[in-house]
Design brief:
CATH class of the largest domain: Alpha Beta
Helix content: 40-55%
Largest sheet: 6 strands, mixed
Number of strands: 11
Number of domains: 2
Oligomer: single chain
Strand order of the largest sheet: 3-2-1-4-6-5
């Protein structure tokens, strides 16, 4: 791939998603030391040096302490960034050794929490991430295999919100190989993660299917266009379901919401499922992903059927049809 296309990806992203860049003073990027994030960091540094000299680039590396080489990789990133005029490098530390279970998920959450806190402290509104077309491809098939609903299948958007911080992904149409080539051209030495070639990881197995599927037409470009449509449809469905949520709400308390059952039953099934998910989000308020789509659908079908419906628990919430048979409640477990 022509390196000019990578530069165009950055320029187009700023024009489309950050048109107010003349007033932006700081942006951040997450850099692990791998080729993808280092290539993006270098592209952003070039963009700043040529067009945005008023912007400072904050390069953030999180050291989880999970691998012996992690500290050295973080220092390696710092050495590269030290020669960049408008950039600073920060190592954010989290001791992942104390996590006994769910280490990968906890490490991911900790990484985003640390970077979000740093950005908040420094007035940064945009955090760039090196996700590329291969990451999108793998994420889609992992979620498809897990039975995700429309929101999950929409995967990663070019810009998403994390508590007021814009997560920016300008490389979703580009490949890992493009970014490797960029590093080679610019003489950037990157750190290789040995797990990237290990078949025991689900992502690696899906990655190997790309050559076959792309030859049939499922390129990164076509997949991203399709996912954009999925996200648009999900957004439209959410607008409609939010209106209906308000319409059928009878009473709302801190730990309990009362809904009109007859009105609920008149809704399309997808809308009813979305109302159940929203009620769980409002009552449980634990900030997690919520229950799996299949479990939400099962409870919604049982609630709509209404026959012998007893108390059900889902997503740390209790669902119950009231004695009059005209209302149902969602309360904190």
């Amino acid at each position: 791939m022509s390196q000019s296309l990578l530069h165009s990806s950055i320029a187009d992203f700023f024009e489309l998603y950050i048109p107010e860049s003349s007033s932006v003073r700081n942006i951040a990027i997450a850099v692990s030391g791998g080729a993808d994030s280092l290539a993006l960091a270098h592209l952003l540094n070039q963009k700043i040096s040529s067009d945005l000299r008023h912007v400072k680039l904050h390069v953030l590396t999180v050291d989880h302490g999970l691998r012996p080489e992690a500290s050295g990789e973080a220092e390696h990133v710092g050495n590269i960034v030290s020669s960049w005029e408008n950039a600073t490098h920060q190592i954010l530390k989290w001791d992942g050794r104390s996590a006994e279970t769910g280490i990968q998920e906890k490490a991911r959450n900790a990484r985003y929490d640390l970077m979000r806190e740093y950005c908040e402290q420094h007035g940064i509104k945009h955090l760039f991430l090196g996700h590329h077309g291969g990451d999108q491809f793998e994420t889609f098939f992992i979620r498809l295999s897990a039975g995700s609903g429309p929101e999950g299948l929409g995967c990663m958007s070019p810009v998403s919100d994390l508590n007021g911080l814009s997560l920016c992904r300008p490389l979703l149409y580009r490949s890992h190989e493009d970014l490797i080539s960029n590093c080679q051209k610019e003489n950037i030495v990157w750190c290789e993660d040995p797990s990237n070639g290990d078949d025991k990881y689900e992502r690696v197995r899906y990655r190997k299917a790309y050559d076959v599927l792309s030859s049939e037409g499922l390129t990164y470009k076509r997949l991203n266009k399709t996912l954009e449509r999925v996200r648009q449809m999900a957004e439209s469905a959410n607008v409609f379901s939010n209106e209906k949520y308000d319409d059928i709400t009878i009473k709302k308390e801190t730990d309990r919401i009362l809904f009109d059952l007859k009105s609920f039953k008149s809704l399309p099934f997808d809308t009813a499922c979305r109302i159940i998910r929203k009620a769980i989000e409002e009552i449980a308020t634990d900030g997690g992903y919520g229950p799996r789509t299949e479990k939400t659908e099962i409870l919604t079908k049982e609630l709509l059927a209404d026959k012998d419906f007893r108390k059900r628990t889902l997503g740390k919430c209790i669902f119950e049809i009231l004695d009059d048979g005209e209302k149902f409640s969602v309360s904190k477990e």
